[in-house]
Amino acid sequence: MDILKMTITQNVDNLHVRAGSTRLIEIHGNRTKVRCIVCESRWLREAFDYEDLPPACPECGGLVKGDTVMFGEPIPPRVLEACFNATDKCDCMIVCGTSATVYPAASFPQAVAERGGFVIEANPNPTRLSEIADVVLKGPTGITLPRLVDRLR
Ligand SMILES: [Zn+2]
């Protein structure tokens, strides 16, 4: 329907790509890709050459690792910047299936709400976000989101 301007996902499973999402920020990376830790270039795992180990970035020579952001590892700066830019432009954020406790992602709907934007939470259980959300769609997203789309149509 061309309503969503951006999807920010914490999932690393590539399902948004497989579903056809093109305006997509994978804040915790994508397990089907590798990434240079210096210049943040990304490639599909199978498209990268592992002849020499450890793999070096053909762009800058930096170390190439799995794209997934591991526990304690910083989110790549350009990815984080893209998230903040999308959040700054957002007038309505739909937050789906998250405990809303992992920062910085949990700060995005807070920023939208503080700016006077509309926040919709779709979640089976209450979270901290429920208190600031304008609308809470209580239930599994597999049920609530199709209903939301039906209402929009
Ligand atoms: Zn590089």
Q: What would you note in describing this structure?
A:
It is a single chain. The chain is α/β, with parallel strands linked by helices. The chain has 4 helices and 8 strands. 24% of the residues lie in helices and 20% in strands. The model has no long low-confidence stretch (mean pLDDT 94). The protein folds into 2 domains: 7-29 and 74-152, 3-Layer(aba) Sandwich (Rossmann fold), CATH 3.40.50.1220; 33-66, no CATH class. Helix 2 runs parallel beside helix 3 (107-114). Strands 4-3-5 form a 3-stranded antiparallel sheet, with no helix packed on it. The protein has a 3-stranded parallel sheet with strand order 6-7-8. It has helices at residues 15-18, 77-89, 107-114, 141-152; strands spanning 7-9, 24-26, 33-36, 42-44, 64-66, 92-96, 118-123, 135-138. Helix 1 (15-18) links the parallel strand 1 and strand 2 (24-26).
